[in-house]
Design a protein that fits this description.
The protein is an alpha/beta fold. It has 18 helices and 17 strands. The mean pLDDT is about 95.
């Protein structure tokens, strides 16, 4: 059995490998918690003053290192739209930005960028809280409040690196403005849960937007990638992970003006099961953003683009409205010519486009049992139908997932400082 080295709930989450660095704890407890660069290279919360028992209880109610939530039942207008695998879906289409330049610049087809622009330019929000490139390290991201269309477009495309998108959330809400929030599914879950106690979430965040997410590169993997192209971290000015095509190249820009360009497959590889990911990403119960109003994702078969696709695909998103608010926004963005509709889609199409997420949803309960067997608290889920999904596993597969998770924890694969060279 593993033993925790501290009574701090924040330290516990980090030690169990379940901190994703979202920064919401630092936003909720700004006088006691700050986001800092940890020795592992990740952005992690540090307590300058210990949280009280009451504060730790509050933390555990929203932190994605303790709990991951789907859509609260009071946000679902029609239970008939609750897909057993993919959750609430009121509208699902294939679409892309109606602006060819944005479609090309964005990570896939510019779906979330187009919707963000619609919300800002129609006056429904005063700004969009999103992730932009750069931060404590050149290849990190940082939280940005975009209040102009130019800022939104400049911040389009994906950031596959450590980022704290929620670090300034409550500070922004304190100003009284209305916003849209674009963040990862685990971040959106945390905000949705916080909204059960903080009424500003529902009152001032007019839309929660998320990409379908498979995870991001841990620092050691990114540093290895930079070394593989002959780059030293200190020489890097910026990294563009995707965009300028679908998915577009990974471009490393150096301070001396030189650049190195690699394909998406050079960066990630051709087998999603072999991706380098933080532990929390590997055991995530929901990369499909069930707590969001709107979700947008890739539409490649098996979520793995071929070289031919990368040369010829102009970029098309699956765009999902999970709430009536989300569906209304999608319809209005299409009607207002921000989104260009390519056709309808159905929930089962997601099985074809995102099969790895299906496997993770089904295996979640077994993996969390394996975490508890290793002496950890384990992750819990709310409104994600984890028990029902677990029934799709036979006893042999369940046992294999449980024991495999326990073994990985015991050899340290859950740790922030783990590298595959350390085994």
């Amino acid at each position: 059995m593993l033993k925790m080295t501290s009574n701090s709930k924040i330290k516990q989450v980090i030690e169990e490998g379940l901190c994703i660095g979202c920064g919401l704890c630092a936003s909720v407890f700004p006088n006691q918690v700050q986001m800092q660069l940890a020795p592992s290279g990740h952005l992690r919360p540090v307590e300058s003053t210990s949280l009280s028992s009451e504060q730790n209880i509050h933390l555990q109610s929203f932190c994605p290192g303790f709990v991951h939530s789907g859509m609260p039942s009071d946000k679902i207008s029609n239970l008939e739209n609750l897909d057993p695998t993919w959750g609430p879906i009121e509208k699902i289409v294939r679409a892309h930005s109606n602006d060819a330049k944005i479609r090309h610049k964005a990570a896939t087809g510019g779906g979330l960028t187009a919707i963000s622009l619609y919300l800002l330019e129609s006056g429904q929000v005063d700004g969009v809280l999103q992730v932009a490139g750069g931060g404590l390290k050149a290849y990190f991201g940082h939280s940005q409040l975009s209040q102009t269309s130019k800022d939104i477009v400049n911040s389009s495309s994906s950031i596959y690196a450590s980022t704290s998108p929620l670090e300034n959330l409550l500070k922004v809400l304190d100003t009284g403005i209305n916003i849209a929030l674009v963040a990862k599914p685990c971040d959106i879950s945390a905000v949705r849960l916080l909204g059960k106690k903080d009424q500003r979430i529902d009152r001032q965040i007019k839309a929660l937007l998320t990409p379908i997410c498979g995870g991001f590169f841990p620092p050691f993997a990114m540093e290895n990638f930079l070394e593989s192209v002959g780059a030293k971290e200190g020489d890097v000015e910026s990294v563009s992970y995707r965009g300028e095509g679908c998915p577009g190249p990974t471009i490393i820009r150096f301070k001396n003006g030189e650049t190195v360009s690699k394909t998406y497959l050079d960066f990630w590889g051709t087998d999603s099961s072999q991706w380098y990911l933080p532990w929390r990403c590997r055991i995530c119960p929901d990369g499909s953003g069930e707590a969001a109003d709107i979700v947008s994702g890739d539409t490649w078969p098996n979520c793995e683009p071929t070289l031919e696709m990368m040369e010829n695909d102009l970029g098309t998103n699956v765009v999902i409205g999970r709430t009536s608010t989300g569906a209304d926004i999608i319809n209005a963005a299409i009607k207002s010519n921000y989104l260009s509709l390519e056709g309808d889609a159905k929930p089962s199409d997601l099985d074809y486009w995102q099969p790895h997420l299906v496997r993770k949803k089904i295996a979640a309960n077994a993996r969390y049992a394996g975490m508890r067997a290793a002496g950890q608290t384990g992750l819990s889920t709310i409104d994600l139908r984890a028990d029902d999904l677990n029934k799709r596993m036979d006893k042999s597969d369940y046992r294999s997932e449980l024991e495999g998770t326990t073994h990985r924890i015991k050899i340290g694969k859950h740790r922030d400082d783990f590298t595959y060279e350390s085994v």
